[in-house]
Amino acid sequence: MVIHFTPGPKIPPLPPVGNTVPDDEPEFAEESGPCDKCDGFYGSGGIILQGKVVKCCLRCFGRKLHLYRYGVSWIEAFTHPGTCCPYKSKPLEAAVKTANEKLKTGFGVYNRFKNNSEHFATFCRTGKKFSIQPLIHKYGGDKLPELPVDELENIAAGTSEN
């Protein structure tokens, strides 16, 4: 089972990053409908409960699986968006505990730049919200802006007022 933060229904998807599950994988057949394993909905890229923290099976989670790295440099995080984070990861058990807590309490309102699924995942793993998307949105993706680290952290956490 996977616990994740889903976008609301009006947010178009970002281009995918990561590895694709093989098309011949029987678990991911091209069909759709309510899932008999969880409260999700597989096929057509959807989860029934959108804009919330949800728990679902891998089939309903989606066709894209990502390996996410922690403890990388800010430059690597900026040049490989959606794949890594500059913060160190907590032990897996602590991350799962945080995810289960957020399943009960929620994670606020989904916002692509201030509170998205990457913010949720990194918060569960590190205790800090992080997504490079706000930095790229604000400054473009050509090079990491020369800002103090605390300002980079505020923008990446979605807490910057600018």
UniProtKB/TrEMBL annotation:
Residues 1-133 form the LRAT domain. InterPro entries: LRAT_dom. It holds the Pfam family LRAT. This is LRAT domain-containing protein.
